[in-house]
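Possible regression after last week's pipeline update?

I re-ran a chain I had predicted before the update to compare outputs. Posting the input and the new output here so someone can diff against the archived version. Not blocking, just want to make sure nothing changed silently.
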Amino acid sequence: MKIVCFSINPIFANQVTGGASKHFMNICQHLEQQGHEVVVLCAQADTNHKSFTFGNNIHVKPELPFHLPFPQPYQLPPGDLALICELIAQELSTADRFYMHDGELLLPFLYNDVPTVSSFRDNHYPESILGSFLTQADAVIAVSDFSAEVIKASAGRVLPELRKRIHTVLNGIDTQLYHAVDPTPVFQRYALDPAVHQIILHPHRPEAGKGLMQTILVVEKLVKIYGFTHVRVLVPQWLGEMNGQSESEFHAQISAELQRRGLEGHFIFHQWLSQDEMPEYYSAASLTLCLGSVVEAFGNVAYESLACGTPSIVAKVGVHRSQLPDTLIDKVEYGNVDAAAQIAATILREHIRVRGERLEQILNYFSLEHQLEAYAQIITQAEKLPQLESKTIVNSQETKFHLAPWCYLATRGIYHDYDAKYYRIPKLEAWLAESETLSFTEKEGRSILWDEMQQWYRMGILVPLTG
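New output (post-update):
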């Protein structure tokens, strides 16, 4: 069958721009290997970004004039939006299936007549969140249990039948690529001596929410308190064609911060790496830091690093709270620089690696074969379903609530992923510690007012319990 696939991010012949694009091409290749014709429609990076063939039967057409760099892809002239509609509609007129690799095609009328599958890759960017409310996909793939619960507790409250269309398929890790390898090329490229330097990775896009400031604060403690004076942190710079004013301003702010703290010599900013270079990059390091506030739906970097034998420290934000058990990955509460630095110092001092039974357990969670087979089955077996209808909830004192999936009980209060802050609400914290389901009529004599419950509901801390 002919399967048209959509990516709002540009797809390049020899460059991977992030985890989403990496998984996208893996899925396309798997569909092609099953004998399908695959047509990829994606954003055009610039006028030199031309159509190309990938493999034998994957035709990549970077023709869609979305605004780049991401975010705000829909910040474009109305004529360009009309052109996007025409180009997609033309391709779908002969398609058997339509696969959207993200939920960010906010034009559901385009796929009225084609069985459609949408894979939501994040629960952070406005286009993804809005896309979950606008979708008319016949099947929805969430990349983690956390992501699925976020969709159910938000768009699923407004579109009740949407919950029945959600499939959870964890991203897989390609162990043929991601495993411990000889890191010598990395040492040579960046003039590093593993006998002298402690190498830390911050392999993320240049945006504040990815945690570079937190990495700087941890490194400052490692250097000035724990005595690791030869720490070197590798930080990739964004692709030139994806770099905009906000990225440039962010880099300037970081440079000023490093200078102010006297840490310039500990950070090495380098060109964006290809996917094939990542295993040696991970293997060269002693530690990978993922301490940002972005509400990741999966968080590829932390787990690819583990697969290559390098420990990761993650902030308990979004999926990182529950993706792996605490025994398999180090977690700290967001903003707890002291805890992160203490764990990092132990890892560096004891030269801890991820291997043996621990590594085997981690890889069991992230089967690439299972991911690709599940995607292919969901896409090829999708059938056109009735249009999703909205039905909003009316709360009453009998409504049952529970803690929103984007919140959790932390030591400093209730942490809210989307506010990136802690709320101290002792009455609610005590109640949640005793019961997962809360109803005003069953408050058991607690000094809680209905107006207070409604306030917590409006803050997005509590959400109505749905089916």
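Follow-up from reviewer: compared with the archived run. The chain has a mean pLDDT of 93. Marking as no regression found.
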